[in-house]
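Need RNA recognition motif domain-containing protein's 3D structure for a figure. Predict it.
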Amino acid sequence: MKLLVRNLSRATTEQELRVLFSEHGSVTECTVVLDQETGYSKGFAFVELPEQEEAQAALKALNMTSFNKSTIRVKIANS
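Structure prediction for RNA recognition motif domain-containing protein:
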């Protein structure tokens, strides 16, 4: 299941997100969306966990929590 993670600190890396979400299950994909012109983060990312139960647990545990000095929002990504 693919999750959308919004309101990320611009300094957040894919590795940091992978570590955060791996506490709830195996992460198969993690992509911080970058601005094509500047190369800097746009403040959101996609994280994929193959097991629906793990993804739901991560969503429930991490939505509206503080991470890297920002309150992140996690929801199911529209495919």
